[in-house]
Design goal:
The complex is a heterodimer of chains A (about 290) and B (about 950).
Chain A lengths: L3 E5 L4 H10 L4 E4 L5 H6 L6 E6 L9 E4 L2 E5 L4 H6 L1 H6 L1 H7 L5 H4 L4 H6 L6 H8 L3 E6 L2 E6 L4 E3 L2 E2 L7 E8 L5 E10 L5 E13 L2 E10 L6 E2 L1 H7 L6 H14 L11 H23 L1
Parallel strand pairs in A: 1-3, 2-3
Antiparallel strand pairs in A: 4-5, 5-10, 6-7, 6-10, 8-9, 11-12, 12-13, 13-14
Helix pairs in contact in A: 5-8, 9-10
Chain B lengths: L3 E6 L2 E6 L6 H8 L18 E4 L2 E4 L12 E3 L6 E3 L2 E3 L2 H8 L9 H14 L5 H7 L10 H17 L28 H6 L14 E7 L5 E7 L1 H5 L3 E5 L9 E2 L6 E2 L7 E2 L5 E7 L2 H10 L1 E6 L6 H4 L13 E9 L2 H7 L2 E9 L11 E6 L5 E5 L4 H12 L6 E5 L15 H11 L3 E4 L2 H7 L5 E10 L5 E13 L5 H10 L9 E10 L13 H19 L3 H8 L19 H16 L10 E3 L2 E17 L8 E8 L5 E5 L8 H13 L6 E5 L16 H28 L6 E4 L2 E4 L2 E4 H10 L5 E7 L15 E14 L5 E11 L6 H20 L5 E2 L2 E2 L17 E7 L21 H13 L10 H13 L1
Parallel strand pairs in B: 1-5, 8-21, 19-20, 23-24, 28-29, 35-38
Antiparallel strand pairs in B: 1-2, 3-4, 3-5, 6-7, 8-14, 9-13, 9-15, 10-14, 11-12, 16-24, 17-22, 18-19, 18-21, 22-23, 25-26, 26-34, 27-28, 27-33, 30-31, 31-32, 34-35, 36-37
Helix pairs in contact in B: 2-5, 11-12, 14-15, 15-22, 18-19, 21-22
Classes of the chains: A alpha+beta (about 290), B alpha+beta (about 950).
Chain lengths: ~290, ~950
């Protein structure tokens, strides 16, 4: 009942794809592994024959500016993401989300790629990347391609990628220009099973008192990471006032599909508290963009 | 390729063959024998396994060993430096020792490694930085404030090069003595900060097998078929045993023998954790596989899910004698007259859930068969002598053939009193004639061991207009789960303490301790009083509001005092420090808050966020020291002088992190006027140490403290008599001062004393069996207990009116402990007590649905971490009890009991929502406030 038999440490993306597609028996890529190993140990995932460790792949460990984009390798540990000054400058929401993922020791191994690959609709990193309008770079035997971030998700816990032959290599984020800023916050329920019950990220561009552009992500607001596009439309091009916020919240509540999760939060409770959270996040991003 | 791992561990190059499925923690512990890295959960939750990988702290339990190839690892064993011939502690290690941050010690390697990485990155961290870094490194003894102080002190020492600062905020006892009453370090602290401390799972024996118990995993039913043939056939399996293979008694239990070690075919399974077969194999992996290959069929029965249902007519009866374990009654005065006289009568019902001890060290037992036909059991147990009895019963042996060798415990809190793996390893070791280890994983620990009782408590209170209580009537239901464990005793304590620490003329309480198909419930710090105090202290605040009486005044007016008669008919003759606790907590609250007396409990909206409201809450409690209820409360201790002039004190009382070993050492040091370092302590070995009784009921400082004291005193008297005779002087002329014995002007070292004693054929060894003052059973009146401790707490909380989120900001805790034997250790107990109380109130809920455990991983059972730690102020009150050692009584439990009602009362004071069910549910608060604002 070993959790795995063979452990491979490819050094490049092509080696990784090769290892993934040529492995005999069941195979899984492993990044930080803080979720995958627990799934294996606790029987939520059957033991695998081969684990392909992606943390030795140089390309996936890079964090750098490429042209007018910031590239964050999928195997970069969450703590490195959260501490990196480039991320602080261009993706503050991601810093805030990163600092809330699990605890410090886990963040030293857990990766952004893993956070996304689990395809949970309210993973902190995922919600931040959604609002930051990230794109994913995906490698497959056919080569590399870029995908809009939300197209990575097929449903709660279901990735749209084929884990048998595809790998998320990294994420591209637009660099922040003047008067653009982002923010992420979440609300926990510390009792019993102790899980976050709601999170929210906002990216916006401000022109004086007007919201020039905005992205809003709320988790869990649907089966896949939820972009509150109707609330965005309500605010875009408008002054940021109590009235426009009220309209945006109404739009968000109309579009989001809040659900009841046993022992965590009822749909009603989420609806009740999302306004306050959304307001706090929006206010903070607004001030930062000033 | 990739089949070798090259890594550097603590500066040493290592090349190892890769093994399938191996984690870094396993490589370090099993292959490099670096057992300082601890395994608490194997699910990246507790942080005990933290090591540095290339300078960064990582959880080694979820780190594939092969990933460590090419990396540099530092473990706790790598911090101390060899300077000349001596190992010099790293300042962090030194600071953890000096600041009293070490209790059970099991989490400490993880704490220190995490802190070490922090200080490398940030040499001058503030409190917030420390909390951020240690967020997920759990300490169940919960010395978080001391841990924080230790890190600050170490950082300062590292920056300045000066010596590590000692704590400055812990006062000595008001009772003056030479050694006791002053802060002293734990004798085992250095081992615990260097990773050298050995816990049961750190032991290996030649030829040792690994065991696994197959659990029924159904809550209720009859085992109809059991087939172990596939398990037996698996290569590497050495033995598979079923109920038929138990040579002696099948059932164990602490009071009632109702708990089968293995359920046999045709017999009843009463909860998911019942074992139906046990396996021993060459490796853990094989044992696990074999266990999974065992095939079982059950005739499922309806599940009894709660104690109220268990008492209903026509429901299935779980035990032969029925579902009622015990109907416990407390009667005092005339209830009808009391309620008739009252100006106000009201009632309310409260609910508390099952909670788990969640000690960071999971249960582990090792059975070692000896060539002479005896059996050794290595285990961290709160009751070594009872383990011995129970193992012998199961083997059908005379007790003398069993030796329990108690090991350091990574926390107990009441959860290591019952038999867990002790009998299983004994059975397997007996059959295989090889050592057998049974280590629970966290899931098994959560499923199997007895918990805190879930309760339903209805309180009816009658009072006069001025607040004087005249009648309190309580009905309690306690869920003792599948087996009795200490259920009857726990619920008795809940019942006798149900009317709170108050002087009430008319009291009635009826408790139904019921069997259900939930995991068993037994001892857990507070022993039932945690639950009933929540109910009655909530009632006290409700009463204060109804009558318009100040809540502190209400408690003062009704407080037990010397001369009061308790609800069980005991006259309190001494040592009732409740009033002083009340006064001093009130004073401290006024001081730290800067509020006036009339505004003390009013809600205060925070200036920068109108959704955040703060308020203080207040609660009192009391808790017996010792077994009471007529049970003989004894402890034995040996004190022996050795040839080198040192002493050893021995007792089978348990050290589970609470600091008993230090207490014993200080007491012997006091009595013989020698330095504490001259006194060694040996505990928990049933061959070498006399019976100290169970480590429960906050009793050990009192009983084993006294046994140690009287043994030392008797030894001193014997030496005095011998010397007086030999030198022909009066005994009064022989004095013991500062490590020497003065005989009529001539001073002798202890080495000389030893020689003199031996020369005349006297063995300088005394065994003393101490028996605490006799008590009476419940219902007979008189002294049910020989001492009570008192505790009062105030908590300041902040409630978010929109989300219902609650934060505890400050807790002030005053405890009447009689006398503070070791103020440094006491501080740790008090801080930990508050945190355990806070967890009970705000985060912890052991969820069982239809007999199945939902919270079967630590990730689902939230133990409070450092982030939730409020500012804790401890006030020590010392009303001595005559029979206690230097006046001391127990503190382990009372310091945890008032926290929950202090917090829930504060929540009410902040936002007007009465919490009558724990843990506090923020959604319920938000809903209630929302509904109220919509009206």
């Amino acid at each position: 009942m070993n959790l795995w038999q063979e452990y491979k440490r490819p050094a490049s993306i092509s080696e990784a794809i090769q290892a993934l597609t040529s492995a005999s028996g069941s195979v899984m890529p492993i990044a930080g592994g803080t979720d995958l190993l627990l799934d294996l140990k606790q029987g939520r995932h059957a033991p695998v024959n081969t684990l392909i460790d992606l943390t030795f792949v140089h390309e996936m460990k890079l964090l750098e500016v490429r042209g007018d984009e910031l590239f964050i390798g999928a195997a970069v540990a969450v703590n490195r993401v959260a501490l990196d000054p480039l991320v602080g400058t261009h993706a503050q929401a991601l810093v805030e989300a990163g600092n809330l993922i699990a605890g410090p020791q886990v963040r030293n191994t857990a990766t952004l790629g893993g956070n996304v690959a689990h395809a949970l609709p309210a993973a902190d990193g995922t919600i931040a990347l959604t609002a930051l309008n990230a794109q994913a770079e995906v490698a497959s035997p056919a080569g590399m391609r870029r995908m809009p971030f939300t197209s990575l998700f097929a449903g709660p816990g279901k990735s749209a990628l084929d884990k048998g032959k595809e790998i998320i290599v990294g994420f591209y984020l637009p660099l922040t220009k003047n008067h653009q800023a982002s923010c992420f916050k979440r609300i926990m329920r510390p009792q019993g099973v102790a899980l976050p019950i709601l999170n929210c990220a906002v990216w916006l561009e401000r022109e004086g008192d007007v919201v020039k552009d905005i992205h809003i992500a709320v988790g869990p607001g649907g089966p896949i990471p939820f972009r509150a596009t109707e609330a965005e439309a309500t605010l875009r091009g408008q002054s940021f006032t109590e009235e426009t916020f009220a309209l945006a919240l109404e739009a968000l509540l109309g579009q989001a599909k809040f659900r009841t999760s046993a022992r965590r939060a009822s749909a009603d409770y989420r609806k009740h508290i999302v306004g306050g959270l959304f307001k706090d996040v929006l206010d903070a991003a607004w001030v930062r963009a000033g | 390729m990739n089949n070798q791992i090259n890594l550097t561990v603590n500066g040493k190059q290592q090349t190892l063959e890769a093994k399938p499925g191996e984690t870094l923690s396993s490589l370090l512990r099993m292959r490099l024998h670096l057992t300082g890295t601890k395994i608490g959960c194997e699910e990246a939750e507790c942080g005990a396994c933290t090591v540095l990988v290339d300078g960064e702290p990582m959880m080694s339990c979820v780190y594939p060993a092969e990933r460590a190839d090419g990396k540099t690892i530092v473990t706790i064993e790598g911090l101390a430096q060899r300077v000349h011939e001596e190992m010099k502690l790293h300042p962090l290690q030194e600071a953890f020792v000096e600041q009293g941050a070490v209790q059970c010690g099991f989490c400490i390697p993880g704490q220190i490694m995490t802190a070490y990485a922090l200080l490398k990155r940030n040499p001058n961290p503030n409190s917030e930085d420390i909390r951020f870094a240690l967020k997920d490194t759990l300490c169940r003894c919960a010395g978080y404030p001391s841990i924080e102080n230790a890190i600050l002190a170490a950082a300062q020492a590292l920056r300045t090069g000066e010596a590590v600062q000692k704590p400055t905020h812990i006062p000595d006892s008001i009772h003056e003595h030479k050694t006791v009453g002053h802060s002293h370090l734990r004798p085992e602290a250095v081992e615990k900060v260097t990773g050298k401390a050995i816990y049961t799972d750190d032991l290996t024996f030649d030829g040792m097998l690994f065991a696994k118990a197959r659990r029924a995993m159904i809550p209720h039913g009859f085992l109809t078929k059991l087939d172990v043939s596939k398990a037996k056939a698996l290569p590497g399996v050495v033995a598979v045993l079923t109920a038929e293979d138990i040579p002696g008694e099948h059932n164990h239990g602490l009071v009632i023998y109702d708990w089968p070690a293995i359920v046999g075919v045709g017999e009843r399974v009463r909860y998911v954790g019942d074992s139906i077969a046990i396996v021993a194999a060459e490796t853990q992996d094989i044992a696990d596989q074999a266990s999974a290959l065992i095939e079982a069929e059950f005739d499922l029965q309806p599940v009894i899910t709660n104690p109220v249902q268990a008492r209903q007519d026509g429901v299935p009866q779980i035990h032969e004698k029925g579902n009622l374990l015990k109907h416990i009654k407390v009667r005092k005065g005339d209830m009808d007259a009391g309620f008739a006289k009252a100006d106000l009568v009201f009632e309310h019902t409260f609910h508390t859930p099952t909670t788990d001890h969640a000690f960071i060290e999971p249960e582990c037992s090792i059975g070692v068969p000896l060539p002479d036909g005896r059996m050794e059991i290595y285990v961290g147990s709160q009751i070594p002598y009872q383990d011995k009895t129970q193992v012998a019963r199961a083997l059908g042996w005379n007790e003398d053939r069993v030796r329990v060798v108690g090991q350091l415990m990574g926390g107990g809190f009441g959860g290591k009193e019952d038999i867990m793996g002790q009998i299983h390893v004994a059975l397997l070791a007996n059959v295989t004639q090889r050592p057998v280890k049974l280590l629970f994983d966290r899931q098994e620990s959560l499923l199997v061991h007895p918990k805190r009782h879930a309760t339903q408590i209805r309180v009816k209170m009658g009072a006069m207009k001025n607040g004087r209580l005249v009648a309190v009537d309580t009905e309690l239901y306690g869920d003792t789960g599948a087996y009795a464990s200490l259920g009857e005793k726990v619920m008795t304590r809940a019942t006798t303490h149900a009317a709170g620490p108050y002087d009430v003329e008319n009291v009635r309480a009826d408790c139904y301790a019921m069997y259900t198909n939930n995991p068993p419930a037994g001892a857990f710090r507070g022993f039932g009083v945690t639950q009933s105090a929540f109910a009655v202290e909530s009632m006290m605040d409700m009463l204060a509001e109804k009558l318009g009486v100040d809540r502190i005044e209400l408690r003062r007016m009704n407080a037990l005092h010397v001369g009061s008669i308790t609800n069980t008919g005991q006259e309190l003759k001494e040592s009732v420090g409740l009033m002083e606790c009340i006064e001093r907590v009130e004073g401290e609250m006024l001081k730290v808050s800067g509020l006036s007396k009339k505004d003390l409990f009013k809600p205060r909206v925070t200036p920068d966020n109108s959704n955040l409201v703060r308020a203080w809450g207040f609660a009192s409690a009391y808790k017996n020291t010792g077994l009471g209820g007529g049970a003989p409360d004894k402890s034995g201790a040996d004190v022996e002088l050795y040839e080198d002039g040192t002493f050893q004190v021995r007792s089978s009382a348990a050290e589970l992190g609470q600091g008993l070993v230090t207490v014993m050492r200080l007491i012997v040091s006091e009595e013989l006027a020698v330095a504490p370092e001259k006194v060694r302590v040996l505990v928990m070995d049933t061959d070498l140490t006399p019976n100290g009784g169970p480590t429960t009921a906050s009793r050990q400082t009192f009983v084993t403290g006294n046994a140690s004291r009287y043994a030392a005193k008797t030894l001193r008297d014997e030496i005095t008599a011998t010397m007086a005779e030999k030198y022909d002087v009066k005994p009064e002329q022989i004095r013991f001062v500062d490590g020497v014995v003065h005989v009529n002007g001539h001073s002798m070292t202890w080495v000389e004393v030893y020689k003199e004693m031996k020369a005349i054929g006297k063995n300088p060894l005394v065994r003393y069996e101490y028996e605490a003052p006799k008590t009476k059973p419940l219902g007979e009146g008189g002294d049910m207990h020989f001492a009570f401790s008192f505790g009062v707490q105030a908590a300041e909380v902040e409630v978010n009116k929109l989300t219902g989120e609650v934060r505890a900001l400050k807790v002030i805790s005053a405890n009447d402990v009689g006398m503070a034997v070791n103020p440094l250790g006491l501080q740790g107990q008090i801080e930990g007590g508050v945190m355990m109380g806070l967890g009970n109130c705000l985060t912890e809920e052991f969820i069982v649905e239809n007999g199945n455990v939902v919270t079967d991983h630590l990730a689902r059972y939230r133990v409070p971490g450092i982030m939730l730690t409020p500012e804790i102020t401890s006030i020590v009150v010392e009303h001595p009890v005559e029979a206690g050692p230097y006046g001391a009584k127990g503190v382990g439990e009372v310091c945890s009991i008032p926290t929950t009602p202090a917090i829930t009362n504060a929540i009410y004071n902040a936002v007007g929502v009465r919490i009558d069910r724990t843990p506090v549910d923020q959604e319920m608060i938000a809903n209630e406030l929302w509904e109220r604002s919509n009206k």
